[in-house]
Amino acid sequence: MSVLVAVLWGPVYAAVLCGVAAVAVAYATTRKPELWHLAAGTGLCAAGVLAQAFAYYLILRDGSLGPHGSAAVLFLLGLQFFLHGRKVRRAAQLTLSALRRHREENGLLRAAEPLGERRPGARRVPFAMTSVFGAVVSGLGSLFLCFTLLALRDLLTTGDNPWWASLVVAALCAQAVLFIGLGNTILRTGVQYYDTVVSSPDDLAGRQYVLYLRSFRDDHRLSRPHRIPLAGAWLAAAVSLGQGEEERIADALSWAGPLVGVGAPGERVPRAGARRMYLPPDDWQRPVSTMMRGAALVVIVLGKGPGTLWEIREAMRILPPERLLLLVPMKEKAYDEFRELAGDLAPGVLPAYRRSRALSSRVRGIIHFEPDWTARFVALRRPPPLEDPLVGSLDRAMWPAMVRLTELELERRADGRRGEA
């Protein structure tokens, strides 16, 4: 919004808009003091956006990058401010989690431990270099966008233009979208090239983890950032620097352990979010069943594939209800079709759909189970301002499931101590 205001009316109005946002942030922080860390990250993001907006304004006003490329430097600094602010917001969101606080109070929240090993053949490159390269590519795309606007202004204000002038503007616009999308993709997922993977289920023995199961066909949807209203999913993925939904799900479930999922066969680069483990396509059910037994929590994303139906039935067969959680990434019609496809899942039956309001994520709700396998559908609700919409809503929706799982773990710990005595 600030970038658009700066381009149309100048940096002064953009600064006023950011000032109003800062007042709103300060007010929210005053009402809830624990939000100060989240507010600081939001302020860094706003400062970065304002710097980029001012860079756009200078380029459009002067028709150049300014002396010594000052506008380009300002844009790159603004982008780095925004990325750092996003990291601060992510850390603050975890600090605010009521689930993590409850687990910590009961002595069940473990510190993050290294999990997995480097992929064979993966070269180690400092992430800072990847970040700078992505910022440069995205900055080039932004320059192409400025040149597109300048060319469009000249095209509309001057007469007797050659027939190919419109084609030049269209080509510049396409280049802008391409470079911005490529740069943002590098910034979001470049670190995945150097991420670690879990080599076998034996590496998880004695470790606390959350097993994340889903249809491989849903990976591309859940790896994208939140959808932008009135824009296609591909455009949102191109212009957004936000985390993908799987990364947000991993943050929301961090109270139970790191997220571990089976990677798609033939996948060259693991997607951001769950730590990947690769299994043979013709022998995956046995190791998945083994990992279910060892997981602190099993999370299954509903989908129409036969593998998902088998995973749900297998989890209900071998797990207590407190250790199973279902994510619903679909609207009411698709969910009803899944219920018909699944039939009666003994010992539980999938509940009726409950609509989610004012949330742009693909995950619309969760299903957790009572001790007698009675299923409960909890629709996601938008959290208070400043919080991450998906992480904050999942943090609240999973509270009953987390409490029952915590009670189960405390009972088992007490039984183990009595057995030792």
From TrEMBL:
<keyword id="KW-0808">Transferase</keyword>
<protein>
    <submittedName>
        <fullName>Transferase</fullName>
    </submittedName>
</protein>
<feature type="transmembrane region" description="Helical">
    <location>
        <begin position="127"/>
        <end position="151"/>
    </location>
</feature>
<feature type="transmembrane region" description="Helical">
    <location>
        <begin position="6"/>
        <end position="28"/>
    </location>
</feature>
<keyword id="KW-0812">Transmembrane</keyword>
<feature type="transmembrane region" description="Helical">
    <location>
        <begin position="163"/>
        <end position="182"/>
    </location>
</feature>
<keyword id="KW-0472">Membrane</keyword>
<feature type="transmembrane region" description="Helical">
    <location>
        <begin position="35"/>
        <end position="59"/>
    </location>
</feature>
<feature type="transmembrane region" description="Helical">
    <location>
        <begin position="65"/>
        <end position="83"/>
    </location>
</feature>
<dbReference type="GO" id="GO:0016740">
    <property type="term" value="F:transferase activity"/>
</dbReference>
<keyword id="KW-1133">Transmembrane helix</keyword>
